[in-house]
Amino acid sequence: MQLTDNELSKAYKKDKPEFGHAMLKYYALDPEYINLNNGSYGTTPRPVQHAINELTAKIESNPDVFMRVLLYPAIQKVREQLAEFLGAKANEVVLVSNASMGLATILRNFEWEEGDIIFVFTTTYNSISRTAAYLTDIPPYPTASVITLNFPATHKDVIQTFKQHIQNHPAKPNRKRVAIIDSLVSNPGVLLPWKEMVDICREERIWSVVDAAHSIGQEVGLNLAESNPDFWVSNCHKWLSAKRSCAVLYVPERNQHIIKSSIPTSAFYISPKDRTGPNFVEQYNWNGTIDHGSMLTIPDALEFREWMGGERKINEYCHKLALEGGQLLAKVLGTRVMDPDGELTLNMVNVELPIPPNVPVTLEVHASLETQMMLEQKAYAPQFHHNGRWWTRCSAQVWNELSDFEILGKKWLAVCKDVTEQFGSQEGART
């Protein structure tokens, strides 16, 4: 008999964690569905689900007491834990709803001028590249400069491409340059040499804005004081396993004057001309009525991960599984992994799909792939088109085993065959 979330929340610490399918009892996943897509939305452990259910009941029993008395100390506790986890100061980290909100907050707080440059990559997450595009569409019209990254590639290739591009786009007199850098790209799911890129930004007097949506819980040994980015944002509901959605925004003390206002503007906002001290953390303690429950499950997620053995043990399992699972999936599909040497791979692995170039890259094709895989085949890892080929990105998590990759591969074979037959003869297909 399966334990309820309430029973499991009390009993799980007595168990000895065993990675693989034995971990599935600690998650609410459909037993008929193979989930190799933790990277998109995260997957909440059942003890964390129980924690938010209890918290919600507590909030609703007396919203006044919770919002006016209990909330701020609870947020402070979370911020202190995250700061220790990230190698930062507590007054340098605040909580936001998701990485996109954190990055929008940074980018919209810069005082843009005509002649400023925003560096984005062809692999930048779409909503973030669209934010940069929006900023260039409104006065005073800064310029977006796009850096092309095509994979397969090495870290050396990425660094060389980045250096060459920024040298080809020097700063104009009294103007600034801002680089939006992924720590781990979403699609393809590759690790970039972001710390080296941050160093280059510092040398070139470029502001570094790191989109680390996939980092916390996947990159072991994060130390922001050491890597020293100008700004850094990561989702806590993806790999850290808090309840979605919640994220951490890191702004070192030296740059907090840039972030004048939260989004939306807080009731605790003080005009810079009237400030007698910091006004960064205060704005994020309260900037409108939202459900803070997800943010407050971060301690429960950290506790669950500590029970599993801690960050190094968790990620050693997931990393090894990603490497081996990617090779097995490529063998089943008769294709290849994007990163055969493993330099770009943490817990997400990219494998080419057997879809020929004459299949067009359209919303209709994407919808057919997703619908067949998720609803008919009951398994999924997201598909994407990059550098002229179709790929799938698989996220290896603690509940996965090699057999999941093999089964997924057989299902992808059937769906790719169907899509090729259905769409492969269309005119005007793009490669």
Secondary-structure blueprint of this entry?
Elements: H1 5-11, E1 34-35, H2 38-41, H3 46-61, H4 63-86, E2 93-96, H5 99-109, E3 117-121, H6 126-136, E4 143-147, H7 155-168, E5 177-182, H8 194-204, E6 207-211, H9 224-227, E7 231-235, E8 247-250, H10 280-285, H11 298-308, H12 311-333, E9 348-352, H13 363-377, E10 379-380, E11 383-386, E12 389-395, H14 402-423
Parallel strand pairs: 1-10, 3-4, 3-5, 5-6, 6-7
Antiparallel strand pairs: 2-8, 7-8, 9-12, 11-12
Helix pairs in contact: 1-3, 3-4, 5-6, 7-8, 12-14, 13-14
Structure, described:
There is one protein chain. This protein is of the alpha/beta class and 431 residues long. Helices cover 42% and strands 13% of the residues. It contains 14 helices and twelve strands. It has helices spanning 5-11, 38-41, 46-61, 63-86, 99-109, 126-136, 155-168, 194-204, 224-227, 280-285, 298-308, 311-333, 363-377, 402-423, and strands spanning 34-35, 93-96, 117-121, 143-147, 177-182, 207-211, 231-235, 247-250, 348-352, 379-380, 383-386, 389-395. The strands form three sheets. A seven-stranded mixed beta sheet has the order 2-8-7-6-5-3-4, with helices on both faces. Helix 9 links the parallel strand 6 (207-211) and strand 7 (231-235). The protein is globular and about 65 Å long. It starts with a helix and ends in an 8-residue tail after the last helix. The mean pLDDT is 95.
